[in-house]
Amino acid sequence: MEKRDYSLTEAWGEAVQVMHRSGLLLVSADATGKPNVMTIGWALLGIVWAKPILTALVRPSRFTYGLVDLAGDFTVNVPSPDMDDIVQYCGTMSGREHDKFAERRLVVIPARQVHSPIIDQCLLHYECKVVHKNDVNPQMLAPDIVSNYYPRDDYHRIFFGEVVSVYGVPDFRQRASGLRL
Amino acid sequence: MEKRDYSLTEAWGEAVQVMHRSGLLLVSADATGKPNVMTIGWALLGIVWAKPILTALVRPSRFTYGLVDLAGDFTVNVPSPDMDDIVQYCGTMSGREHDKFAERRLVVIPARQVHSPIIDQCLLHYECKVVHKNDVNPQMLAPDIVSNYYPRDDYHRIFFGEVVSVYGVPDFRQRASGLRL
To answer: What is the ipTM of this complex?
Structure first.
């Protein structure tokens, strides 16, 4: 199905619903173009420095961390409802040991404006260029978050991506709205 | 007009439109309850640490900075179209020298779940409790952003607020959509 452009926030409500229910797929690539994918359940979207911004959080232990850090861009892909098992798989297996694309027949195609590719089967895509990086600082974090999420001190790096393109299937909002609990 | 609850992302698209066009009003308060208001043009919304999160950026030079830092909460209020001049005023005058509420007849009323009040005339309100603070790090920031926004090295503090309540006028989306350029 032909995909169309979306405005920055047009589909964010539904994307957050999908993220909350199952997850979104963050794709990055190394210098040779070899891609990796991980599942994310946390992200923010809005405007900072007068730019459209999407932030994603990645732990230093993740294979994705080095890729995004070096390549300086990533894509966030909203999966379709029938990809739930893939989303779960991509959230538990590491790209260091698994070719998740081949194993789960994920089709990667070039993005429009960034080095990292997109996943063709997904319904919506955010292409992001990193303009700022910051690390979660345990000294300024609520104690319950520290104990719940950081027992091993592996604090996330927060990647602030300038959103350079948003596009997806024309009926994304309807298809994603159908997922609301 | 009676206000109703909104889901986290339900009105974010329209709130970003208003923010981009004129600005949103961030309200904080000191220990005695005395409020202050500033205009913000930058914010992000989504989920982090499995919590609904709204981030706002405040420069250390701002009067608001110390208030939010100490009180640990703030509200973000979406103004109505007829408040454009107030939004501009609140973005240029400091609460150190001006009682912006009295001067512009802004009515503050208690928030539902946080210490900082809300502005009654506004159409929509996000009540936020700070769960993380982080400072923009010039070492990991795009050079064009450094030169455009930080000639005086006054890097923003990023306040990550857990959104504990969202509510507004029932017809907020329609009224805000009417503002689209």
So the answer is: 0.94
